[in-house]
Amino acid sequence: MAHSQFCKSERNELSILLQKGYSHREIAKSLGKHHSAVDREIKRNSVKKIYDPLKAQTKSKTRRQKTKYQNMKINESPEFVDFLIKQLRTGWSPEQIAGRWNYKHPYDKHFSFKAIYKYLYSAFGQHLCKYLLSKSYYCRKRKGKKQKRLPVKNHISIERRPKVINERKRFGDFEADVLGSPKTDSERLPALVERISRKLFAIKVPRLKYAVDGFKKMLKPYRDILKSITFDNGPENARHLELGCKTYFCHSYSAWEKGQIENTLGRLRRFIKKKSRLSEYSDQDIASFVERMNNTPRKCLEFKTPNEVFEELLVKERKKNRKSRKY
User: Fold this and answer.
1) CB 157 within 8 A of CB 249
2) Torsion-angle region of residue 135: left (phi > 0), alpha (psi -120 to 50) or beta?
3) CA atoms of 39 and 28, how far apart (whole Å)
4) Which whole number is the average pLDDT over 215-222?
5) Which side of the chain, N or C, has fewer Cβ within a 10 Å radius?
């Protein structure tokens, strides 16, 4: 018999049946529960040996909250809670909040950003999740069988990708993906990122099956420097051989293996919010978002912009190609 918590209506029914003199086994059969669950419910939530459904509901809820969060240090520090709320509203991340608090209060209780996230995802801090920059709310999902994703035909595993690509020592290696959007949205946004420069390319296509056509269009001006593309195993990449370059594929459900494009699309979410339809954005809007990202200095590029690094490397690569053709 599947285990489930008693709800408010079941506690009302349990109380009525107890008053009528039914046994615990008879009550369990009526409620569709095991008799030991009924015994446990009465023993735990009775007050002065009297089972009252309203008091039982309150007692159960209070106990569950305390059991789950009783060891959370944040609840015991109202001063830190005030600091947390204030800085979340100003746009600070949990990591920045924890770091700043620990720096300013070296002799007080310290907190980690993981503890802050745990607090925010609890019943006490859920209302503050709206201030998180990522807007990613934690929720428990029911586990079910995942549909097995079959690998794309004629694909080469990322395990066989050369070290020169893994170590970002060669210009012209790309990662590719398609920005997630609602299933009812017909338009899709295929995107590419050059691994060294971090330059982003993205255009809209009418259907997911046209993703490879989008990749072709974006790469057309750079066919001479294109070395490889790394994909996931999505069916939209089935025509990868048409791109005319080395292609490598991540393992199933291992998006981290092409972390550059995943990170870049995450940053693109600052402009294109989750669950929004691409039809709400024009081609000019998409181009302006991409250009804005490509003109933003990056710490990993020594605060150069992706456009600057890409153009610099593009000129060098084409000069090298011209010299090699002469000889």
Assistant:
1) yes
2) left
3) 9
4) 95
5) C
